[in-house]
Amino acid sequence: MRRRMVRQQIEARGIQSAAVLDALRRVPRERFVPAEVRAFATDDTALPIGYDQTISQPYIVAFMTELLELERHHRVLEIGTGSGYQTAVLANLCDSVRSIEIVPELAARAARALADLGYAHVTVEQGDGYQGWAEHAPFDRIIVTAAPRAIPQALVDQLAAGGRLVVPVGPTFGIQALTLVTKDAAGRLRRQRRLDVRFVPMVRAVDKN
Ligand code: SAH
Fold first, then answer.
1. Is the whole model's pTM more than 0.90, yes or no?
2. Is the pLDDT of residue 35 over 50?
3. What SS3 state is found at 111?
4. What's 163's domain CATH number?
């Protein structure tokens, strides 16, 4: 079923990177969703994971992963761990993956699912992604899987020279622009819109209090 998911939903829509397709074939999406929706784990859709959050549609995971142009040695930061599914896809491609999730229960659940599947080189932390993770910066690649209204400055600052940042930017209710930010060797930034998407909003830590 996973092979068919990759063929029909991902390859058919133009994702070409063999490494990305292979990672999507390897990661058992059913291990990252609650039991109630497990039967739909290879469906062409986002699914609820509790706490008003969702696991992204497989195609969007593949699209964002391809856009990152990952290499094994890249140091990767993910904001919005959620289920941990995207984290596992990243972990198949890179040796160093750190992920931040603001909802403590989701952070704990994702960390457990990732550990159960043997991803030892992944670190999940509960925290506010707007701050990035200064202690481990800079990052070669940063992926954000919740939508801020504007790109958080800390993430731009923590992007290495030659780095790529992929982030959905836009309003809470409505279409957001999946945006690629590149930083060249001189530190110059370039911003490109790549796809219309709908993500859950990136919330601020204060919203939760
Ligand atoms: N890639 C995940 C997507 C989960 S949805 C998956 O496929 O499962 C986005 C996640 O971002 C949610 O779990 C939400 O709680 C989290 N989030 C929202 N605002 C955040 C913030 N400021 N810092 C870290 N995580 C945040």
1. yes
2. yes
3. helix
4. 3.40.50.150
